[in-house]
Amino acid sequence: MNKIEHSWYKPVSLITLLLLPLSILFWLISSSRKYLYKLGFLKQFKSKTPIIVVGNISVGGNGKTPFVLWLFNYLTQQGLSVGIISRGYGGHANNYPLLVTDQVSTNEAGDEPVLLYHRLKCPIAVGPNRQHSIELLERTYAPDVIISDDGMQHYKMARSIECCIVDSERKFGNGFLMPAGPLRETTKRLNSVDLVIENGGQSSSHYTLQTSPLRRVSGTKPVNSLITSAHAISAIGNPQRFENSLEAQGIRLLSTHHFRDHYAYTANDFSGFGDDNVVMTEKDAVKCGSFAKPNWYYLPVDAEPSDVVINTLNSLLKEKGILNGL
């Protein structure tokens, strides 16, 4: 995190006050755009396929990816064919929309779409124009439903269901809009969301993160030997949660290293660790496979939603006609 991002999760400081005028400008522009879509002055794209948005109102990692993984599997278990679209943040491909395959790299598609594809082997389209990505999935796969990984603020795209993920630890920081705070929209936006889900916490509508045994970054094979110490590497929104998970498994952290979210690693970033063990997140691992040493590992995590989340989602799917006749 840079100094501005650090200030988002601290008491109001001089940095916060200096940035407030820009936050007011941000609010004016974003609110005006939102209401232009609401009033019909700006035209929405409405796909023939139901869209479920999984997003948030704050920047930085809130835990969308584990919930998208769970949601895909849940919808598939209901007998639905499912596709996923993503902006593909951090990727730079020659042509968009891009279908993710085994040959597509994180440099082209971004880390999260590649992670999702490696886990799910499902149709995933990446690109800055979500309409084009949706149309590509519809032409190629004709899915019953499409999950939009992020896109809550992309009001051009009509959606059937909105799921907003909230980090129970960091919440909404200092409560200000960008750049004085971490919010893309005010917390009033939560009143219009179909399902607000806390990542952790005590809310009835939440999910917990369940860890699986460590896997090797090179080859993704499960690790049979006991790892007792390692350097912890992460480029995610809330690295403390990841590090706590490692320590809960009895791993002594030799050091911790935080990179900005979606950071593009190179082998030089690991030159100081010698032959020591290195443990990273799954999102980091998809970017390091080509130069990983045999004793570099990642920690897979899966979302386990509460009954309230599952029951509410099921009701929404029926209410929106997505599960009709199934």
Automatic annotation (TrEMBL):
The entry's keywords: ATP-binding, Kinase, Lipid A biosynthesis, Lipid biosynthesis, Lipid metabolism, Membrane, Nucleotide-binding, Transferase, Transmembrane, Transmembrane helix
Binding residues annotated for ATP, in chain numbering: S58, V59, G60, G61, N62, G63, K64, T65
Record field: transmembrane: 12-29
SUPFAM superfamilies per UniProt: P-loop containing nucleoside triphosphate hydrolases
Top-level taxon of origin: Bacteria
Metabolic or biological pathway, per its Swiss-Prot or TrEMBL entry: Glycolipid biosynthesis; lipid IV(A) biosynthesis; lipid IV(A) from (3R)-3-hydroxytetradecanoyl-[acyl-carrier-protein] and UDP-N-acetyl-alpha-D-glucosamine: step 6/6
InterPro entries: LpxK, P-loop_NTPase
Catalyzed reaction equations: a lipid A disaccharide + ATP = a lipid IVA + ADP + H(+)
Class of this enzyme: transferase
Enzyme Commission number(s) of this protein: 2.7.1.130
HAMAP family: LpxK
Family note: Belongs to the LpxK family.
Purpose of the protein: Transfers the gamma-phosphate of ATP to the 4'-position of a tetraacyldisaccharide 1-phosphate intermediate (termed DS-1-P) to form tetraacyldisaccharide 1,4'-bis-phosphate (lipid IVA).
Protein name: Tetraacyldisaccharide 4'-kinase
Gene symbol of the encoding locus: lpxK
